[in-house]
Amino acid sequence: MNVNFLIHSPIQSATSQNEQEAKVEETNSPKPLRLSEEDMSKLSGEEVKEEQEEAALPPHIQKMVEKLEELREKIKEEQKLLDELKASDSYSDEMKAELVTQKLEFILRMQSQVVELTKNIQEALKEAGISDPGVLLKALA
């Protein structure tokens, strides 16, 4: 025995059905969501991969990599200070030239430290038997 329940449902006018469909469309059209870069990296697993790659390095190499990153940050800061010094008018020309020279020499010494530390990291990675190109690039990038 087949029972058709539509027979027992109340009759609705065509306009009320159109209104209901419009309401459904309004509620079903979601606004686009935006994820931050941090959330995207969490969802894609990049953060976990980075932690695993760092954990793959021995502690002494991790310290060397951290020192390399610190040196690079210091170089960026010193270059900003150098640019500010060049733009500054608060010093005489002779004094300004001397300060710029000193700042450039300091930056060059730090850059040579970066080169030396990079070589030392490469040697330490070889001694530790790490030859994975991804780990090498990550450590030296």
Walk me through the structure.
The protein has 141 residues and is an all-alpha fold. Helices cover 75% and strands 0% of the residues. The protein has six helices and no strands. Helix 4 packs antiparallel against helix 5. It starts with 13 loop residues before the first helix and ends with a helix. The relative contact order is 0.09. The mean pLDDT is 78.
**Tally of DSSP helical segments:** 6
Radius of gyration: 32 Å
Which class best fits the helix and strand makeup?
mainly alpha
Portion of residues in beta strands equals under 5%
Mean pLDDT: 78
- Structural shape: flat
Order of helices and strands: HHHHHH
Biggest β-sheet: count, sense, barrel? none
| N- and C-termini, Cα separation | 75 Å
Low-confidence stretches: none
Helix fraction by DSSP (H/I, runs of at least 4): over 70%
Number of strands: 0
Brief characterization of the structure:
With 141 residues, the chain is an all-alpha fold.
Key structural traits:
single chain; 141 residues; mainly alpha; 75% helix
Task: Give the helix/strand layout.
Layout: H1 14-28, H2 37-44, H3 46-56, H4 59-87, H5 93-127, H6 133-140
Helix pairs in contact: 4-5
